[in-house]
Amino acid sequence: MGTKLRTCEEVEKGFSNYIKLCLRHASRDYFKKLYRDSVLIPFDECEPKIAINIRTSTTITFEDFAVLSQAIETLSFSEKRVLYLKFFQDKTDKEIAQFIGVTRQAITKSKSNVLVKLKNHLEIQS
């Protein structure tokens, strides 16, 4: 009786693993097809110009706002785009990289460079 019960449990476990594997592969294939069939529109065509509006819950003086706006204006289009996607759209570095078409490491480096550039500009103006 114990051998029969053990055999049933092993069959059930094997069937369960088979179903999990089938579902995993089906979902993987579905998302591959979805990604393959999706149409990517270049960012330049979607957003002809990025205007970063600064909204904050803390009090900011007009002078600080002007300095920050001036610092943002010194950034290139691609730098503004990375800032916008990261801090205003709350996208991850990986999502930004896929959207722009570069590696995640390139976005991380670009983001760090932009923040250093803004920090240096703000320190000079202070």
Description:
- The mean pLDDT is 78.
- This protein has helices at residues 2-37, 43-46, 62-73, 77-88, 93-100, 104-125.
- The termini are far apart.
- It has 2 domains: 1-38; 43-125, Winged helix-like DNA-binding domain superfamily/Winged helix DNA-binding domain (Arc Repressor Mutant, subunit A), CATH 1.10.10.10.
- The chain has 6 helices and no strands.
- With 126 residues, it is mostly helical.
- Residues 71-119 form the RNA polymerase sigma-70 region domain.
Descriptors for this entry?
Sigma-70 family RNA polymerase sigma factor; mainly alpha; Arc Repressor Mutant, subunit A; 126 residues; RNA_pol_sigma-70_dom; 6 helices
Question: Quick summary of this structure?
Answer:
This protein has six helices and no strands.
The CATH topology assignment of the largest domain is Arc Repressor Mutant, subunit A
User: Helix/strand-derived class?
Assistant: mainly alpha
Largest sheet: none
| pLDDT averaged residue by residue | 78
Distance between the termini: 83 Å
Q: Estimate nothing, just give the exact number of structural domains.
A: 2
Task: Give the count of helical stretches.
Answer: 6
Q: Uncertain segments of ≥5 residues (pLDDT<50)?
A: none
Alpha carbon gyration radius = 25 Å
Q: In which range does the helix fraction lie?
A: over 70%
CATH superfamily of the largest domain: Winged helix-like DNA-binding domain superfamily/Winged helix DNA-binding domain
Q: Supply the CATH class of the largest domain.
A: Mainly Alpha
In CATH, the architecture of the largest domain is Orthogonal Bundle
Principal-axis shape equals: elongated
> How large a portion of the residues is in β-strands, by DSSP E?
under 5%
Strand/helix succession: HHHHHH
Tally of DSSP β-strands: 0
